[in-house]
C-alpha cells in the first residue's frame, strides 16, 4: 500500500528525511532502525570540507525556523570513505544532496558520489539560500539551472533530481527548463529566504543575517508549488516543506508529489519519520485511499473522482 | 538519549524571573554527568516550534527527579513558567557530555565559576565533587541582588563568593575580579555562564586545567543539524558540536 | 515620540491598518475612534464594482491564513461618494489602495481618487495574487512595474506608494525600478501565494484554488525584504506582514520601515491597532529608544550604535 | 458587538463528538436575536490564528450565561473541547442578525428545521417563539443515531420529528422527506444547517416565508474582510455578508 517506484528509487514507503535535517543518519540511528525509512536524503556534500557560516545559525519564528548553516559538511572524500559505507548497514536507498559553487564542483561531486553502491539518486541543491556563490543563484535562473542539470546528468551514474527554490516568481518555468535538460525528478521546496531581528541588539539574530525559513509556516507555499509544477511536468516530484504528520504527507501526495520529505520536524520529534510511516496507512484509509500511488495528484486529476465518492 | 514525557513535580520562582522546575520520570536514570542538559518541548502547538535546552541542575536518582533552573527570557521559557504541577512535558535527554568528575582526583581543589543561569549545573557538580573528596570553591556572578540564587546551596559544599555587576549584593564586579582579589587557588576550574565570562576565564587561566560549558542556539540538540558548532581553531574547517561533543569542553578544545 | 512624516503623510504614529483587512473602516469604528490611527489603508478600489472570487475565500494555515477575496469592492464611484466622505469625520489620513487590470484602469482610479480631500497618498496594488489579470503580473516584472508607476505618477494629485509582491526572486531589482520611475514610497509586503487542500474532498479549500498567505508565518520573509530594500532605495517604506504586537512593529522599524501596517491581526483582535499604538512608547523605551524615527533602519545603520549601548 | 473574556462554566460531550459549552459574562446582555453567533479565539497561540464562529444555542439573562453546541471537527474545535471549567475564552459577539422573532405573529405556526450542528440555534428560537405564542414544530436531521442531540429540549416546546440519513434513529431520510411525508403545515419556515439542506428547503418552500441561517468560512466575522459573501442574484456584483447582514436571511435574499 505504501510502496512507490521512482527513477532509481524503489521506496518501501514515501517518507524520506530531508537533506540537512538528518545529518548522515548517525544521530537518528540512536533512536530507531533507519531501515524503516523510504529513503534518506543526506546532508549536502561539496568537494572540499566546509565549515559553513558563523553562529548563531538558527532562529525561531512563528510556526517555523530560520537556518543559515551554510552547507557545512566534511567534504566528498570523507563522505565517500566514512558516511556512506556506514549507511550501508541499512536497507534504504540514499539520495545524495550535491552542492557547489560552480558547475565543475557539482560535476565532480556528482560523478564520484553517484558511484557509491548505496547512492540510488542525486539531489542537486541549486536552492541553498545561505551561501554566497552557487546555490540559489542556479535555482532562480532557468537557463543556468538547465545547464547545470545537463552537465550533471552527463557524469552521474544514477538518476538526478533537482531541488527547486521557492524564492522565484515563476517556479513552473524553472521546473520545465530542468525537465527539458534531462532531470529525472524534482524535489521541492527548499527554504524561503527570511530574517529575524534581535530587538535587544537591533541586529539580525543570525550571524549570516538572512536564513532559510522552514517548518509548518511554509507548507501552504510548498503545496501551491507542488500543485502547479506537478501539472506542468512529467517527471516525479518529492515534496517537502512543513510536514509534521501523516495528514501533511497526504496533502503533499494529493497536491502531486510522489514521495514526501520531512525536514525541520525531525528536530522537534526525532521519531517523526517512523511515526508518520506508522500512521500513514490509517490516514490513507480514513480518506478513502487504498494506496499511496492512488493519491498522487488527486487534487487536480478531476477526471477521476476521489475514491470515497465512488461507492 | 531518550524521549519521554516527564511529570512536573513543582515549578516556582526562586529569584527575579528565575524559576526552578522539578521533573520526574524514568528518563532520569540515564543521567551520567553534571553539565548534561535536557531538550524540552514547551508546548504542543507549532509555536514555539523548537525545543529549549536547559541544563540539569540537580538529580535525585532515589525518586527519579531532576531539576532545571531557568530565566524567563522569551516566549518558550515564559510558557514553561506557566506549567502546573502534574502536567507532562515532552523531554529529550539527557543530552551531551558534562563536566568530567571522573578525571578530578580526591584532595584536589576545584574552582566552580557560574554566571547567571550558568549557575544551576554547578549544584550537581559540587555535590558529585565533594562526594568524591574534591574541595570546591564557588564564585557566582549575577547582575544585581534580585537575581541572586543558589548561594545557600553552594555554601553547603564549600566556600562561596558572590559578585554582582552593580554591587547590590556581595562584591561589586565580575567573577574574574573576585578570583583575582581573593587570590583563590585551585587545581581545576569548571565554569558555566555567558560567553564573555568564559572567554575571560580562558584568557586568564587557560594555562591551567579549565572546563567550560558552552551555550549556542540549537536546532536538533542531538548533533544532526550543525546549528551549534564551535570552531576548535585547529584548522579552517575543524569544529565541535556543542550539543553532542559538549556542552562542556576543555578550554583548549574551543576557540572563543 | 511616535510621529512620522512621509511624503503626503503626517502620521501621528506609525501604525496603519493594511488594505483589505479593514474594509473602509466602518466596522472597526464600532470598536474604537479611528482618529487614533496613524492612517488608514482602505480596501483596493477598481474603476468598476467587483464581486471578486467565489467562496470559500479564506483558509487557515499554521500561524497564518490564505485569502482569495479577489479585490471585491463597490467601485470607484461608490467609494468617492460614500466611503471616503464617511471617513472624513476622522482625523487621520487615508491611503487609497488602487487596483486594476490594465494601466488605463489604474490611471483612471488614481486620477479621481487622489483628488478626494482626505486621500493623502495612493498605494498602487501591483501585487494582488488573487486576480487573473493585472495585479501580481505588474508586480513581478520590473519594467511593467516602472511603466505603471510612471503612468500613475502623471495623473495622481498625491504621492504614490507602490505595494510590492514578495513572490519574486529579486525584490530590490523591482524596488529600484519603481523608485527610478518616480514612486514616492514603497509598501511591502503583499501576500505570498499559497494553497491548502481539504483532505476530505482532495481539492483546494479555496474556490480560487490558490490564495495569498498572510499573518505571523510570513513575518520573517517580510523583515528580510524590508531590510534589503530599505538599503537599496532612498524612498521610505511602509512595512507589513504578520505584525501582531508593538514588538513586531519595532522589528519592522529596525529593519528599515518608516511606518508599519497591520493586516490579518485585525481579524484576530479588532482592537489590535489601538493596542499596539498604546504599547509602542513603552516598548520603544524598553529597548532604549526615545522616538520612532530613531529606530528606523537601525539593524543596518552600523555606523551608529543602538541607543542603549551608548550610555 | 463586544470583545470580552467569558468564563467557561461547563463543557461536556452531549453526543458523539458534539460538545456543549456554557459561557458566562457581561457580554451576554447584548444578545438580541436567536441565530446570532459568537466568534471565539480558541487559543492564545498563533495557531489556530483565526477565531471560530459558533451559533448561540441558548441564553440565560438571569445569570448572564450563553451556551454553544459544537462538533469537534478540526483543530480549533478540538482545542475548544479541551477547555476546562473556570478557564477564560476571548469572545467577540454577539454578532450578526438572527431569526426575526418580532416579525412572526402569535398564533402562527413555525416550522423549525435543523440539520446536524445547525440544530443548536433552534433551541433559543423555540423558546422565544413559544413565549410569544407561536406554535412550533421541529424537524431535526442527523447522520446517525449516535449524532442525535436536543430532541428532548425541542419536545418541551412542540412536536419534534427526527430523521437520520442511515435510519438508525427516528425516520430514515432527510428533513425534506419528513416534511413531505408527515404533511407538516406551517406559516413560516426557519432553518439552520448544511447548505445542501437549505438549498432543498428553498427550492421546495421558497414561495412561503422562509428564513435560512447560512454558513461560510469567515475571516473577521464583523464585515471587514469580504470573506463570507453570498450572492443575492440581483446583479453581477450584488452580495450580502453572512457575518454582518446574516447569518439569517430571507430565502429570496440569497442565491444558493
Ligand atoms: C546547553 C545549554 C544549556 C542551557 N541551560 C540553561 C539553564 O540551565 N538555564 C537557563 O535559564 N538557560 C539555559 N540555557 C539557555 C536557554 O536555552 C535559553 O534561555 C532558552 O532557550 C530561551 O528560550 P526562550 O523561548 O525563552 O527565548 P527566545 O529568545 O524566544 O528563543 C528563541 C530561540 O532562541 C533560542 N535561544 C534563545 N536564547 C538562547 C540561549 N541563550 N542559548 C541557546 N538558545 C537560545 C531558543 O532555544 C529558541 O530556539 C541553556 C542553553 C544551552 C545551549
Ligand atoms: C455563523 C456560523 C455559525 C456556526 N455555528 C456552529 C455551531 O453552532 N456549531 C458548530 O459545530 N459549528 C458551527 N459553525 C461551523 C464552525 O464554525 C466550524 O465547524 C468551525 O469553525 C471549525 O473549526 P475547526 O478548527 O474545528 O476546523 P478546521 O477545518 O480546522 O478550521 C479551519 C478554518 O476553517 C473554518 N471552517 C471550517 N469549517 C467551517 C464551517 N463549516 N463553517 C465556517 N467555517 C469553517 C474555521 O473557522 C477555520 O477558520 C458555524 C459557522 C458559522 C459561519
Ligand atoms: C537546518 C537545516 C539545514 C538544511 N540543509 C540543507 C542542505 O544541506 N541541503 C538541502 O538541499 N536542503 C537543506 N535544507 C532544506 C530542507 O531539506 C528542506 O528543503 C526545507 O527545510 C523544507 O522542509 P521542512 O519545512 O520540512 O524543514 C535544510 C533545512 C534546515 C532546516
Ligand atoms: C483578507 C485580506 C484581503 C486583502 N486585500 C488586500 C487589498 O485589497 N489590497 C492590498 O493591497 N492588499 C490586500 N491584502 C494584503 C494585506 O494588505 C497585507 O499586505 C498582507 O496581508 C500582509 O500583512 P498581514 O500579515 O499583517 O496580514 C489583503 C490581505 C488579506 C488577509
Ligand atoms: S543543535 Fe543540531 S547539531 Fe547541535
Ligand atoms: S467574515 Fe469578514 S466580512 Fe464576513
UniProtKB/TrEMBL annotation, chains A, C:
InterPro entries: Aldolase_TIM, DHO_dehydrogenase, DHOD_1B, Dihydroorotate_DH_1, Dihydroorotate_DH_1_2, Dihydroorotate_DH_cat, Dihydroorotate_DH_CS, Dihydroorotate_DH_I. The active site is at residue 128. Pathway: Pyrimidine metabolism; UMP biosynthesis via de novo pathway; orotate from (S)-dihydroorotate (NAD(+) route): step 1/1. CDD domains: DHOD_1B_like. Residues 1-284 form the Dihydroorotate dehydrogenase catalytic domain. It catalyses: (S)-dihydroorotate + NAD(+) = orotate + NADH + H(+); (S)-dihydroorotate + A = orotate + AH2. It comes from the Bacteria. It is an enzyme of class 1 (oxidoreductase). Substrate binds at residues 43, 67-71, 125, 190-191. Keywords: Cytoplasm, Flavoprotein, FMN, NAD, Oxidoreductase, Pyrimidine biosynthesis. GO terms for molecular function: dihydroorotate dehydrogenase (NAD+) activity. Binds 1 FMN per subunit. Its EC number is 1.3.-.-. GO terms for cellular component: cytoplasm. The keyword Cytoplasm applies. Its cofactor is FMN. GO terms for biological process: 'de novo' pyrimidine nucleobase biosynthetic process; 'de novo' UMP biosynthetic process. Its main location: cytoplasm. It is found in: Cytoplasm. FMN binds at residues 19, 43-44, 97, 125, 163, 189, 215, 241-242, 263-264. Belongs to the dihydroorotate dehydrogenase family. Type 1 subfamily. Heterotetramer of 2 PyrK and 2 PyrD type B subunits. PANTHER family: DIHYDROOROTATE DEHYDROGENASE (FUMARATE), DIHYDROOROTATE DEHYDROGENASE (QUINONE), MITOCHONDRIAL-RELATED. Catalyzes the conversion of dihydroorotate to orotate with NAD(+) as electron acceptor. This is Dihydroorotate dehydrogenase.
From TrEMBL, chains B, D:
Its cofactor is [2Fe-2S] cluster; FAD. InterPro entries: Cyt_c3_hydrogenase_gsu, Dihydroorotate_DH_ele_sf, Dihydroorotate_DH_Fe-S-bd, Dihydroorotate_DHASE_ETsu, FAD-bd_FR_type, FNR_nucleotide-bd, OxRdtase_FAD/NAD-bd, PyrK_electron_transfer. SUPFAM superfamilies: Ferredoxin reductase-like, C-terminal NADP-linked domain, Riboflavin synthase domain-like. Residues 1-101 form the FAD-binding FR-type domain. It holds the Pfam family DHODB_Fe-S_bind. GO terms for biological process: 'de novo' UMP biosynthetic process. CDD domains: DHOD_e_trans. [2Fe-2S] cluster binds at residues 220, 225, 228, 243. GO terms for molecular function: 2 iron, 2 sulfur cluster binding; electron transfer activity; flavin adenine dinucleotide binding; metal ion binding; oxidoreductase activity. Pathway: Pyrimidine metabolism; UMP biosynthesis via de novo pathway; orotate from (S)-dihydroorotate (NAD(+) route): step 1/1. FAD binds at residues 52-55, 69-71, 76-77. Keywords: 2Fe-2S, Electron transport, FAD, Flavoprotein, Iron, Iron-sulfur, Metal-binding, Pyrimidine biosynthesis, Transport. Binds 1 [2Fe-2S] cluster per subunit. NCBIfam families: PRK00054.1-2 (NF000797), PRK00054.1-4 (NF000799). PANTHER family: DIHYDROOROTATE DEHYDROGENASE B (NAD(+)), ELECTRON TRANSFER SUBUNIT, DIHYDROOROTATE DEHYDROGENASE B (NAD(+)), ELECTRON TRANSFER SUBUNIT-RELATED. HAMAP family: DHODB_Fe_S_bind. Belongs to the PyrK family. Heterotetramer of 2 PyrK and 2 PyrD type B subunits. Responsible for channeling the electrons from the oxidation of dihydroorotate from the FMN redox center in the PyrD type B subunit to the ultimate electron acceptor NAD(+). This is Dihydroorotate dehydrogenase B (NAD(+)), electron transfer subunit.
Amino acid at each position: 500500500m505504501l510502496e512507490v517506484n521512482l527513477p532509481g528509487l524503489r521506496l518501501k514507503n514515501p517518507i524520506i528525511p530531508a537533506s540537512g535535517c538528518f545529518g548522515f543518519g548517525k544521530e537518528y540511528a540512536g533512536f530507531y532502525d533507519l531501515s524503516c525509512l523510504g529513503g534518506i536524503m543526506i546532508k549536502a556534500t561539496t568537494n572540499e570540507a566546509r565549515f559553513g557560516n558563523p553562529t548563531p545559525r538558527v532562529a525561531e519564528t512563528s510556526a517555523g525556523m530560520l537556518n543559515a548553516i551554510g552547507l557545512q559538511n566534511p567534504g566528498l572524500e570523507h563522505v565517500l570513505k566514512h558516511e556512506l559505507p556506514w549507511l550501508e548497514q541499512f536497507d534504504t536507498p540514499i539520495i545524495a544532496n550535491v552542492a557547489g559553487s560552480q558547475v565543475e564542483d557539482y560535476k565532480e561531486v556528482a560523478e564520484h558520489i553517484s558511484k557509491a553502491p548505496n547512492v540510488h539518486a542525486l539531489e542537486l541543491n541549486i536552492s541553498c539560500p545561505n551561501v554566497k556563490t552557487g546555490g540559489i543563484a542556479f535555482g532562480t535562473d532557468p537557463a543556468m539551472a538547465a545547464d547545470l542539470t545537463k552537465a550533471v546528468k552527463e557524469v552521474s551514474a544514477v538518476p538526478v533530481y533537482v531541488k527547486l527554490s521557492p524564492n522565484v516568481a515563476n517556479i513552473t518555468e524553472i521546473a520545465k527548463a530542468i525537465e527539458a535538460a534531462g532531470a529525472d525528478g524534482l524535489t521541492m521546496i527548499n527554504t524561503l529566504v527570511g530574517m529575524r531581528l534581535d530587538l535587544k541588539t537591533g541586529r539580525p539574530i543570525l550571524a549570516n543575517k538572512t536564513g532559510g525559513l522552514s517548518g509548518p509556516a511554509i507548507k501552504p507555499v510548498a503545496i501551491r508549488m507542488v500543485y502547479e509544477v506537478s501539472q506542468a511536468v512529467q517527471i516525479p516530484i518529492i515534496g517537502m516543506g512543513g510536514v509534521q504528520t501523516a495528514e501533511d504527507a497526504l496533502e503533499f501526495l494529493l497536491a502531486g508529489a510522489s514521495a514526501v520529505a520531512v525536514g525541520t520536524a525531525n528536530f522537534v520529534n526525532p521519531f517523526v519519520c517512523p511515526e508518520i510511516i506508522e500512521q500513514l496507512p490509517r490516514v490513507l484509509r480514513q480518506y478513502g485511499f487504498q494506496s499511496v500511488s492512488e493519491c498522487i495528484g488527486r487534487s487536480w486529476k478531476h477526471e477521476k473522482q476521489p475514491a470515497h465518492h465512488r461507492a | 538519549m531518550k524521549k519521554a514525557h516527564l511529570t512536573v513535580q513543582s515549578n516556582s520562582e526562586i529569584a527575579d524571573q528565575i524559576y526552578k522546575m522539578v521533573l520526574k520520570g524514568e528518563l532520569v536514570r540515564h543521567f551520567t554527568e553534571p553539565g548534561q542538559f535536557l531538550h524540552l518541548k514547551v508546548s504542543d502547538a507549532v509555536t514555539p516550534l523548537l525545543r529549549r535546552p536547559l541544563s540539569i541542575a540537580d538529580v535525585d536518582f532515589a525518586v527519579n527527579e531532576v531539576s532545571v533552573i531557568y530565566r524567563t527570557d522569551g516566549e518558550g521559557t515564559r510558557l514553561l513558567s506557566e506549567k502546573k504541577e502534574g502536567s507532562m512535558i515532552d523531554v529529550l535527554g539527557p543530552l551531551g557530555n558534562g563536566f568530567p568528575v571522573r578525571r578530578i582526583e580526591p584532595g584536589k581543589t576545584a574552582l566552580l565559576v557560574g554566571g547567571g543561569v550558568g549557575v544551576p549545573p554547578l549544584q550537581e557538580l559540587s555535590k558529585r565533587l565533594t562526594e568524591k573528596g574534591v574541595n570546591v570553591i564557588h564564585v557566582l556572578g549575577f547582575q544585581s541582588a534580585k537575581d541572586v540564587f543558589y548561594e545557600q546551596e553552594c555554601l553547603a559544599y564549600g566556600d562561596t563568593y558572590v559578585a554582582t555587576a552593580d554591587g547590590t549584593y556581595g562584591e561589586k564586579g565580575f567573577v574574574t575580579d573576585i578570583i583575582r582579589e581573593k587570590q583563590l587557588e585551585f587545581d581545576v576550574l569548571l565554569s558555566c555562564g555567558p560567553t564573555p565570562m568564559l572567554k575571560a576565564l580562558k584568557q586568564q587561566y587557560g594555562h591551567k586545567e579549565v572546563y567550560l560549558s558552552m551555550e549556542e542556539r540549537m536546532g536538533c540538540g542531538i548533533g544532526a543539524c550543525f546549528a551549534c558548532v564551535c570552531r576548535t581553531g585547529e584548522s579552517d574547517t575543524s569544529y565541535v558540536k556543542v550539543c553532542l561533543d559538549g556542552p562542556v569542553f576543555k578550554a583548549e578544545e574551543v576557540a572563543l
